[in-house]
Design goal:
EGF; disulfide bond; Jelly Rolls; six-stranded mixed sheet; transmembrane helix; TMM8A factor; 10 helices; alpha+beta
Amino acid sequence: SLYVSEYFSQSAQKLSFYSWYGNAKLFHFHVPEDTVLLRWLLQASRGKGPECTSMEITVHFRHGAPPVINPLGTRFPANATVRPSYNISITLSSAVQNTTFVNVTTPAAGDWFIAAHLPEAAGRIEVKGFSTPCPYMFQADMFVLRLTDMPVLEPGVPTPHTVVSPAKPLHVKVFVPKHAAGMRFQLSSCVTSEQRACTVRVLLGSITLPQSFQRVLTCTGSINCSLALESPPWEKWLQIMVESLGTANASVLVEMLASFTVCRPGSTSSFLNFISLNQSQAGGRPGAAGSSAPAAGEAPHNASGQRSSCLQSQPVVREDLDVVSVRYRLLNGPSVPVNALSPTLLLLNLNTGMDSGGSLVVNVLLNKTSVSLANATVVACVSAASPVLSLNATRNCSTAFSQGYPLSVSTSSAEAMLIVLYPQTDDWFLSLQLLCPKGQGECSTAEAKVTVFSYLTPCFNDCGPYGQCSLLRRHGYLYAGCSCKAGWGGWSCTDDTKAQSVGTQNLATLLLTLSNLMFLPAIAVAVYRYYLVEASVYTYTMFFSTFYHACDQPGVAVMCIMDYDTLQYCDFLGSVVSIWVTILCMARVKKILKYVLFVLGTLLIAMSLQLDRRGVWNMMGPCLFALVIMVTAWVHHGAKRKHCYPSSWKRWVFYLLPGITLAFIAISVYAFMETNENYYYTHSIWHVLVACSVAFLLPPRDKHKKPWAWSQKLTCRYQICQNDREELYAVT
């Protein structure tokens, strides 16, 4: 046998602490056919700085679709099928790098996915630039060993083969045809090269994670050894590995036979029926509709005439709506007939390779008036790769190499729903059959009408009112995940264990919005002291901060007067410009220079916020530059007057020191105390402290300006005017 090794690699990704599925870094590989050995090379590393500590990385594996994980232990939506993912843990302690190998023998061909993430996020809101997070990197490489000339078993033909040694197992494959109801594998004439009784182990099927349904058969001696499989995967190659358990130097001669039991499907529609349906939907010509009416009427006759077949196949049309969004439509109407003699089969095509990143929803509704027996039950099974054809014999929905998902409806419970999260890439089947409590003979002539609604959606129920459905991408592969808000959690944001009440949401909105009203004293002080430009900036900041936080709320108490991104940008711009104009106003520079700096600084701040809205230097840069200007101006004023500036101790004690203290407390709360849980009151405190500090820090008005007052008017309609420059009064 000729083996070929292949190597596949993807670029490393920076890991994140886990709070939702978008934090997990996904790797997508494709395993070729006839692969006998798969080896994953997992490399994890961390930075060398003091902020880097020991960390545990969790890595999940799955075949056919991204792994369904639940690191936070939250609840899944009702009717959702959840099977634990296969995962391992990689620990980065004293070592900067960790290399781990994971081997999989006889892996299933097709898509394989790896998801890696760090432990649960702490929930602290970190300001970009104040702290340096430790980088944790993860890279996955794949090695495969592929057999180029794997022998093929012909169905029904006994074929001799040789197992060279226990160290070199024999690999063969057989193609499973469509409509195969069962398969029987038989091994006979097992002798060693030394003419002794042999012992071999046969492994049928490939390994899939998280669950593997590989069948094992141990044969001893020369007697015939066989294994029967029900519902093998249709239109796929089935890999068989034979291992010798004898002595190391002896080869083993075996004879293998694979035979299939093929199910003859009964057709309930024809190509002419399909044409007539399209014409009726498109409003076809009257002549064409009239000519197709007899063909459409043949469908019930054909369905009833083929009750002797082992299954009744209903035609289903796949209708692509959008990315990871598909609707399945039955050609013969939403209702399908279900009887007790043979199962009714619906094909749900999910084998495009781009359908595994959503949720498959199957809804079954029983028409109660269509069932003549009160105790009859319609049993359904949703399975991948091959349908369940023996619903009357077993109700666990198992096939040869997979486990399906059961559903049942009756007159007492007429509706059932199934949600398959991240369905694997394959052909999916829905099998339905009528069962009677006293045996199938009781309802041999009965028939039930079942309405089936099936669709593929990116996020089930669009993540509900407290979640946002996000479309994620890894190279060319697209998948969806829910980002939850207001304390809600779970795969579809249906877990209300830590959810905020409506009262708490209203309180958070009121605190974050009404706390901006503390800018009113600062605006009043600025207007009273003739700082009209500064007052305009504070009014702008108060307005947009109020409505930005009203739009930014995660719950139901939300009001957006314009686009969210616009409100956020205006809020950030107003906050930084308010600090800029306040410090420049404290510098007491000449008016023309002050207003030039106002405009120039505002333009530069607007540019920097467009480049990086959350960078710490967008706030610290203007603040530091303005402080340099203020200190320079104060030193100049002090040197000119030959005493400290500001000269009044009352100004320092009652205004400057309280304002500076409030500003430092506000910065500390903003940078180090905010978390996702306490954000609504810590950020409200930030609003109050900043607004109060501005009111304290604004300098007094110029000495030649007097307080605002109503103009004095004489009774003879002459008006007294004041000349600020000459301080003279003139009667006009």
